[in-house]
Design brief:
Elements lengths: L4 E3 L29 E7 L2 E6 H16 L3 H11 L1 H8 L16 H5 L6 H8 L2 H7 L1 E5 L3 E7 L3 H10 L3 E4 L1 H8 L2
Parallel strand pairs: 2-6
Antiparallel strand pairs: 1-4, 2-3, 3-5, 4-5
């Protein structure tokens, strides 16, 4: 599969699979706020940065999807951890609270379109100058565009984010969990 890359431009990715482009910030984060905490980690030789609050939300959503036994349990857990995810699941009809839940019942999960992809969400919140200086846009046939950074850039990227007032913590495990690895 060919993999085209180009210099990073500002693109705001879809946060739900039915909407190709939105102009709102990534839910669960306000990365422009001075002192915002972001985590980063290595996923297959590429660095992924995620606002801490968003990482926590995505981890909770993925755990709910993996551990819930019924649709009622899933809806309850998602309501506690993510308004975005709860709303997304609430739009799926045909399952009662006591019906057994399997993630395969949600087509977007099998398609890889949901839960959201942090590598793609970086397009929406990483400051323009950091994205343009260090990032590359990677295109995939099925999932659209994402932002990539290399492990070799780690020190320079951390310094650039810190210069913007971010608190940057390396947490490979949390990034992998939030990303579904």
């Amino acid at each position: 599969m060919p993999d085209d890359t180009k210099k990073a431009k500002r693109v705001v990715p879809a946060l739900q699979p039915t909407h190709p482009v939105v102009e709102s910030p990534v839910p669960g984060s306000d990365p422009q706020l001075q002192g915002s905490r972001i985590i980063y980690g290595d996923l297959g030789g590429e660095l992924v940065f995620i606002p801490q609050a968003r990482a926590d939300e995505l981890i909770a959503v993925r755990l709910a999807l993996e551990e819930s036994k019924t649709w009622g349990e899933l809806r309850e857990r998602l309501a506690q951890c993510s308004a975005e995810a709860h709303q997304y699941i609430a739009e799926i009809d045909g399952y009662g609270a006591d019906d057994l839940f399997e993630s395969g019942q949600i087509g977007a999960i099998g398609d890889g379109d949901w839960p959201p992809w942090p590598k793609q969400e970086m397009l929406a919140w990483v400051p323009d100058d950091i994205r343009e200086r260090f990032g590359e846009i990677q295109r995939t046939i099925f999932s659209g565009e994402s932002l990539t950074f290399t492990e070799a850039q780690a020190q320079l990227l951390v310094a650039a984010f810190e210069a913007k007032g971010f608190i940057v913590i390396r947490d490979d495990s949390a990034v992998a969990s939030a990303s579904g690895w």
